Amino acid sequence: MNSRCAFVSKVIPFSCVDGPGSRLALFLQGCNLRCKNCHNPWTMGRCNDCGECVPQCPHQALSFNAGNVVWQAEVCEQCDTCLQMCPQQATPMAQTMSIDDVLRQIRKASLFIEGITVSGGEATTQLPFVVDLFTAIKADPQLQSLTCLVDSNGLLSETGWEKLLPVCDGAMLDLKAWDSARHIALTGRNNAQIKRSITLLTQRGKLAELRLLVIPGQVDYLQHIDSLAVFISQLGNVPVRLNAFHAHGVFGEASEWASATPNDVQQLATALQQRGVDNLIFPALYL
């Protein structure tokens, strides 16, 4: 039995967008970035039971009990009213799950998935849980064939990666801007550690995918295309996924930003290809 727990935002039993093949995706609550363009902004913070959402719920799915906000799943209509108004950028629907709880969910789906991806929020803010979960999967005869991936922002320290990599099959990382000042403007943090993480994971053969998010007028990839292309080329033949920003589901000023068009993505792709970066994955759709 393993009772180590994590604060979980959502479990998707069958996902085809969180890594290769069909995967169970586990979204952990809490993040150490504050990306303006985040499509899961309610996964950033932790509910502090302030209760502001309780009287605003149009379906009475939220209540107070002993000073805690309680969510009733059977009443909830998933209208997202509580998510959009939460001052903590959190969700009252997050739940505490033990490793045994998660393993039970994985076993139910195990015949139909190729692996598990732990995402967020930021998965590595609950690193001991992720390490123990992956260790348990590798030790389970029914589950050990599943691949264990993390979808990370890359802020984890080298010491943290050393703990995770022995039981992790790969990591998918975003490089949200090249220049550190631009990265701070978009996310609230600089990107020095993120670049170090990308390099470390490549050296260990564990960088499954590098992601670049095209946001017209906001990102600086083209302004620093030569430096960016040299950096990517040094990673070897790592797949580079070009994602197209869309404003759907985004809160705050980013909801007014222009969505990326196929032409925006192609412009970056062409510039990278001209500099020898050609292992590119294009968006499956544009909104």
From TrEMBL:
Single Gene Ontology MF annotation: metal ion binding
Required cofactor(s): [4Fe-4S] cluster
InterPro entries named among the record's database cross-references: 4Fe4S_Fe-S-bd (IPR017896), 4Fe4S_Fe_S_CS (IPR017900), Aldolase_TIM (IPR013785), BssD/PflA/YjjW (IPR040074), Organic_radical-activating (IPR034457), Organic_radical_activase (IPR012839), Radical_activat_CS (IPR001989), rSAM (IPR007197)
Keywords assigned: 4Fe-4S, Iron, Iron-sulfur, Metal-binding, Oxidoreductase, S-adenosyl-L-methionine
Residue stretches making up the 4Fe-4S ferredoxin-type domain: 38-67, 69-96
UniProt xrefs under Pfam families: Fer4, Radical_SAM
Segments forming domain Radical SAM core: 17-278
Family according to the record: Belongs to the organic radical-activating enzymes family.
Protein name per the record: YjjW family glycine radical enzyme activase
